[in-house]
């Protein structure tokens, strides 16, 4: 009977030792998993920024953004809103990303046939995080 009374105490000590030893073993993989999710989100935001840049480039080439709205040298345009997008990362909740951009003219030059070339800086905001791109454009006469 006396040995049985200590059995419960020994089992409690064993559980305590297992828990104390298991916490450091579980802590590092969880930390690594969280950092991987953050890195995947960052990569997905960069991919979305690249995709948004191609949308802006396409709208500039199709003249959907009028030449008059494109700023002149060393000026900035107003913010252009874009539709929100959702990013999906496995093992994480889907996130809505608010998108908007502005244009900044970094340089302007006239060609031999009096055409106008502008070097645009395009700043894309995805949830307040800026991504910068450059794009040369030419004024098209219609």
Radius of gyration: 28 Å
Report the average pLDDT across residues: 88
Q: End-to-end distance, in Å?
A: 102 Å
| Helix/strand class | alpha+beta
Considering DSSP H and I runs of 4 or more, what fraction of the residues is helical?
40-55%
Count structural domains.
Answer: 1
Poorly predicted runs of 5 or more residues: none
H/E element sequence: HEEEE
Spatial strand sequence of the major β-sheet: 1-2-3-4
Query: In terms of quaternary structure, what is this?
Result: single chain
- How many strands appear in the DSSP assignment? 4
Principal-axes geometry comes out as rod-shaped
Q: Counting H and I runs of at least 4 residues, what is the number of helices?
A: 1
Percentage beta strand: 25-35%
The profile of the biggest β sheet is:
4 strands, antiparallel
